[in-house]
Design a protein that fits this description.
alpha+beta; 2 domains; two-stranded antiparallel sheet; 16 strands; elongated
Length: 257
C-alpha cells in the first residue's frame, strides 16, 4: 500500500512528460506492468509535499502553496490539500495498492523484456517476483546449482561470466576510484568456500529482486538469470539494469540444458 499523488497530463503515453516527473520525484515514479505511470510514496507527508509541485513540473500555473499542509480525510487513509482560493480546489493523495513495476528495461528507447542465456532451461515450478535462485529446483537440483552446471558444461569445466568485459566504477585496494572490468573466467563456488570472494561465480538477477522502493520485482525465471562475479553482482544490485547490461546479456548465446 502506498500514497499516489495526482499527476497532470498523460505520462503513461507521453515519454517526455514521464521523464520530467522522474527527474522531479525520482524513484517514487515508475511504469507498472499494466503500462500505467504513477508516483507512489510510503510517507504521506512526502507525497503531499511533492503533489503541490505537480503543476509546475507539468508546465501549468503553479498550485498555491499558502494553504495548510495535507489533512487526513476522516474515515479513510487518504489525504487532501487545498491548492487554490476556492476550498473545493483540492488535490487528493490516495492510499492504495501500488502495482508491480514493469520488468521491461528501456533499450534504445524501446521497453525490452530480458531474455537471458538460460532461457532454454526448464523453469522451476514456482516463479515469482523477489524469489531467489536457491529456493527452487530444476530436475531435482537447486536452481542456482543447475544454472552453474549448464555454464560449466558449456565451457569445458570452467565457469565463464555472462558479462565478461563489462566495465563499472569501483575502488582499488587504496580505496581510490577506478574502473573495474569483469573477468571472463570465474572461480567455481565448489572450490571457493569463501562466499564473498570477489571473483566467485554467482547467479545474478538481471531485473533485480527488488525495485528502488524495496518491493519484490525481478523473478527467478531462468531467462532473468546471468552468471557473474560476486564483485560485479554486489555493484549491480544497487543499480537498475542499464541498456548496456541488457544488450550484453542478449548477446550471449542460449545455453543448451
Amino acid at each position: 500500500m502506498r500514497y499516489r499523488i495526482p499527476l497532470m497530463g498523460n505520462p503513461s503515453t507521453d515519454v517526455a512528460l514521464r521523464s520530467k516527473y522522474i527527474a522531479a520525484f525520482g524513484s517514487a515514479c515508475y511504469v507498472s506492468e499494466a503500462n500505467t505511470f504513477d508516483c507512489f510514496y510510503r510517507d504521506p507527508l512526502k507525497a503531499c509535499a511533492d503533489a503541490v509541485l505537480v503543476a509546475e513540473v507539468f508546465g501549468a500555473a503553479p498550485y498555491d502553496k499558502n494553504y495548510p499542509a495535507c489533512e487526513r480525510i476522516k474515515g479513510t487513509e487518504d489525504y487532501s490539500r487545498q491548492v487554490g482560493s476556492d476550498p473545493a480546489n483540492k488535490i487528493i493523495i490516495n492510499h492504495q495498492a501500488a502495482p508491480l513495476e514493469s520488468s521491461f528495461i528501456e533499450v534504445n528507447g524501446v521497453p525490452t523484456e530480458v531474455n537471458g542465456p538460460y532461457r532454454n532451461l526448464v523453469e522451476p515450478s514456482n516463479v515469482g517476483p523477489g524469489k531467489d535462485f536457491h529456493c527452487e529446483e530444476i530436475d531435482n537440483i537447486e536452481q542456482r546449482v543447475r544454472i552453474l552446471q549448464v555454464n560449466r558444461k558449456a565451457h569445458g569445466g570452467k565457469i565463464h561470466s555472462d558479462l565478461a568485459g563489462f566495465t563499472y566504477p569501483c575502488v582499488d585496494e587504496n580505496c581510490k576510484p577506478t574502473t573495474c572490468t569483469e573477468p571472463d573466467i570465474l572461480k567455481d563456488p565448489e572450490n571457493t568456500p569463501h562466499q564473498y570472494d570477489p571473483e566467485r561465480a554467482e547467479v545474478h538477477h538481471v531485473v533485480r529482486r527488488k525495485d528502488k522502493r524495496l518491493c519484490p520485482w525481478g523473478t527467478n525465471s531462468n531467462k532473468n538469470a546471468a552468471v557473474i562475479s560476486g564483485k560485479l553482482n554486489r555493484h549491480l544490485t544497487n543499480n537498475y539494469p542499464s541498456a548496456d547490461e541488457v544488450k550484453r546479456i542478449h548477446q550471449v548465446p542460449a545455453y543448451t540444458p
